[in-house]
Amino acid sequence: MKMCGRGITTTLAILSFFFSPAYAYDLNPLQDICVAINDSKASVLVNGKVCKDPKLANADDFFASGLNVSGNAVPQFGFAVNIVDVNNMPGLNTLGISIVRADLEPQGLVPLHTHPRASELITILEGTIYAGFLAPDAANVFKSRLFSKIMNPGDVFVIPQGLIHFQYNVGHKNATLLASFNSQNPGVVMIPSSIFASDPPILDDVLAKDFQLDKKVIKELRKKFS
Ligand SMILES: *[C@@H]1O[C@H](CO)[C@@H](O)[C@H](O)[C@H]1NC(C)=O
Ligand SMILES: *[C@@H]1O[C@H](CO)[C@@H](O)[C@H](O)[C@H]1NC(C)=O
Ligand SMILES: *[C@@H]1O[C@H](CO)[C@@H](O)[C@H](O)[C@H]1NC(C)=O
After folding, report:
1. Which of 12, 23, 73, 108 lies 20 to 30 A from 38 at CA?
2. Residues lining ligand 2, judged by CB closer than 6 Å?
3. pLDDT tens across 145-186, in order?
4. Which backbone phi and psi does 133 adopt, to 5 degrees?
5. Is 194 close to ligand 3, i.e. is its CB under 6 Å away?
6. Which CATH class is domain 60-187?
7. Candidate of 70, 74, 105 to mutate for ligand 3, largest count of ligand atoms within 8 Å of Cβ
């Protein structure tokens, strides 16, 4: 019996050596989609950005400014965002890091969203933010667990990669935060608008069943997000 158990353990160890994901792992994608193409003239990116000849690189490639002010405003939700990633700071290419400044008015919300390619480390600079993420419940996929904090200046919170999260200003004055990402291009999926303002739209029947709502309500929601 004992030998048999040891034999199985050894076999499992050998199998796991050869079939472990660590030995057969695709690289993380660096962008949302990258469809293979034969025609080099019609191609744009090679999983990230094409590299500049290092001899031509200069200090400006590794520099960005403008995080001293708030960025593009999203009035519907009362927040503004200022992004420094590989798309506007080319020196970030292949480095796996980027940063964002977000400003929220009182009751301003960065709506439920995910970053498919990065964890997010939030640092509050000013104001009071209620931030949280949803971790799936391993025992029941139809449930999740909320991890949340009320945060003040100097507080740091981490959102694990890919999980749904939000930031909401619960204070009486504007709030500012910096978010660092372990990706040059974290990506963002805004949950409500992705669902209700997709182009082309998802069939009403699907969303009505998804949210257990009347189709009339689905149409109302579409209007709000379009
Ligand atoms: C790409 O090129 C290969 C080799 O020339 C060819 O066999 C294949 O059909 C091409 N694929 C497409 C999608 O054009
Ligand atoms: C923010 O920084 C930029 C670039 O350094 C500068 O031109 C601008 O005057 C600054 N704005 C404020 C409000 O400090
Ligand atoms: C708060 O933010 C709003 C929107 O960005 C801006 O219009 C307003 O001037 C800010 N208020 C203060 C006190 O900075």
Report:
1. 23
2. 65, 68-69
3. 999 999 999 999 999 999 999 999 999 999 999 999 999 999
4. -135, 160
5. no
6. mainly beta
7. 105
